[in-house]
């Protein structure tokens, strides 16, 4: 992105970026796998954050057994729903950030590997769905992250080029997705992902708070 190009859109990953859910997701995945006799620790899940659920299931079960996959996934979802607290789920730097971006006439979107059902339910429950101009979730028709399909689809819906957008995420998978799409990546540091910072080098800016994004855009990201 050059200093003469204007950032027209800011696209966000969901889990771990705007929603404080990764640690609980890792805990629930781990418990669900262990109930099926597969010893997977939360730390193992951190390494695959950002991938679609079917990819994670195939990786750690070593099979494509749909019955097994559905059983593990259902237990993980049940665990998450029982333990999540909607009052603390939204990071405290999110609302101010997206409101400011919209006030500055920037398009905002979500690009996530989560299912569309879960994505819409969470965004509605948190009462922030109205702030996003496009929501691109994983439907199975498009390849999941780190392939560029989801991010490209969101850009096409908004009618903008990769060079006119930034993608904000929290995982190495998000970084690879942005790089594969030709979009500048902004890594937001969260409690669980400090080990990723050194891995994200080319076309990557690291921030500690989402509220830094507006200043980055104002100062013409290079």
TrEMBL record:
Q: Which GO terms describe its molecular function?
A: phosphoglycolate phosphatase activity
UniProt KW Zinc keyword: no
InterPro entries in alphabetical order:
HAD-like_hydrolase_sf, HAD-like_sf, HAD-SF_hydro_IA, HAD_2, HAD_sf, PGP-like_dom2
State the Gene Ontology BP annotations. DNA repair
Which UniProt key words apply to this protein?
A: Hydrolase
Q: Which family is it part of?
A: Belongs to the HAD-like hydrolase superfamily.
PANTHER family recorded for this chain? PHOSPHOGLYCOLATE PHOSPHATASE (PTHR43434:SF1)
NCBIfam families associated with the record: HAD-SF-IA-v1, HAD-SF-IA-v3
Report the protein name in the record.
HAD-superfamily hydrolase, subfamily IA, variant 3
Q: Which organism is it from?
A: Staphylothermus marinus (strain ATCC 43588 / DSM 3639 / JCM 9404 / F1)
